[in-house]
Amino acid sequence: MAYQSLYRRFRPRRFAEIKGQPHVVAALQGAVREGTVGHAYLLHGPRGTGKTTTARVLAKALNCENRGDDGEPCCVCESCVAIEEGRSFDLHELDAASNNRVENMRELLQRVNLGTPGRAKVYLLDEVHMLTSGAENALLKTLEEPPAHVTWVLATTEPHKVVETIRSRCQVFELRLLGGDAMAEHVRWVIAEAGLDIPADRLDEVVDHVVAEGGGSVRDTLSALDRVVAAGGVVDLDTSTDTLLEALVAGDVAGALAGVAAALDRGRDPRTLGADVLAGLRDAFLTAMGAPPARLSERARRRAETLAGAVAPRVLTRAVEVLGSALVDMRQAPDPRIDLEVALVRLCGVADADPGAGGGVDEGALAALVRRVETLEGRLAALAESSPGPGRARGGESHRDRAPSAPPPPAVPSRRPARTTAAPAAPPAPP
Ligand SMILES: [Zn+2]
């Protein structure tokens, strides 16, 4: 028998098996039970959170021949089995990304109008934000006057790209990433249920690793577990992010550069490596603020706590800023490794330990260093403003950091627009 991925093997078959989405399950299962299922639902959420799985369970529940009083499908009747095997006429799945034209939609809608007596039809339109506007309009018409036997389930990872006219005709549910603890529990259950051969003394390490790899997505987490199983239960633990974070805390420039070199030798991409370090800093910052992210694995949580205890929040904010800017620059950079290295060297200066404190991290000294760097940058910016010319290359932090006394803005680096790589012809007007 061909190997079936753990994700497929342990895909939820009933409402009760859907993990971490109690609000969606309660609403849909309740509607099935009460006979009040709507004509259109919009399920949105990151990949691997169960949008299509939820649509399948709904289709099964609506057509199950022995549906329980609780609204659950039996999973053994002909209708349930046909839907599970993907050969039912009651569930139509269409990927809007590859069928996004108006002709595709018209063809689908012709079928929608043909009902089978006594059957509920579920039309699952995945990645619905990819539809062309012609296809959207065609869909809108049927959402306005839906045939009684039809339920639309629209799924998307990008709800903001779904036009309001469509969204407003749907009951909208957000599916969420699973928290670290819930995911770890699920992974342990899958390992036991599937009888995976993982030595007891390595179990914690494996669970932690796959939870971190999966980032809250059940599908990605179980794919990571598949890879561990394929490697004979051995975790190829990539500690390059830890190494870099430790080097930053210690102000160890050589260690940081060696860490980058080692990670790249392992085949890491400088951009994703930088993004991982940034995520580590952000986790530490949020932990320091008393709001640790829920999706962290045990290892990532411990790391964030250690980092939050060793470095002042102000320094963390600054570090997130510097690295965030570098990541923006790296998108355009011919050799992103250089941008990463420069940013890390700068951060080593920012987070330098006070030698007088016996190698420990002195927050007073760190804050002083931050002030010095910011003052220097302010002077540089002022200098650049007073003598505009072709010398200003990309990556200058001039405008944002001009005022040395201003606290750094909250860091949301991924939303910051990419700065132009060309040197401006004239200095910008003062704010
Ligand atoms: Zn059934």
Structural features:
binds zinc ion; alpha/beta; Rossmann fold; about 50% helix; 5-stranded parallel β-sheet; disordered C terminus
Write the layout of secondary structure elements.
Blueprint: H1 6-9, H2 22-34, E1 40-44, H3 51-63, H4 78-84, E2 91-95, H5 102-112, E3 121-126, H6 133-144, E4 150-156, H7 164-167, E5 171-174, H8 180-194, H9 203-214, H10 218-230, H11 240-250, H12 253-265, H13 270-288, H14 298-310, H15 313-332, H16 336-350, H17 363-386
Parallel strand pairs: 1-4, 1-5, 2-3, 3-4
Helix pairs in contact: 2-3, 3-4, 5-6, 8-9, 9-10, 11-12, 11-13, 11-16, 12-16, 13-14, 13-15, 15-16
Walkthrough of the structure:
The protein is of the alpha/beta class and 431 residues long. The chain folds into three domains: 6-174, Rossmann fold (3-Layer(aba) Sandwich), CATH 3.40.50; 180-230, no CATH class; 240-385 and 396-415, Up-down Bundle (Zinc Finger, Delta Prime, domain 3), CATH 1.20.272.10. It has 17 helices and five strands. It has helices at residues 6-9, 22-34, 51-63, 78-84, 102-112, 133-144, 164-167, 180-194, 203-214, 218-230, 240-250, 253-265, 270-288, 298-310, 313-332, 336-350, 363-386, and strands at residues 40-44, 91-95, 121-126, 150-156, 171-174. Strands 2-3-4-1-5 form a five-stranded parallel beta sheet, covered by helices on one side. Helix 2 (22-34) runs parallel beside helix 3 (51-63) and helix 11 (240-250) runs antiparallel to helix 12. The longest helix has 24 residues, at 363-386. The radius of gyration is 26 Å and the shape is globular. The termini are far apart. Bound molecules: zinc ion. Zinc ion is lined by residues 64-66, 73-75, 77, 79-80.
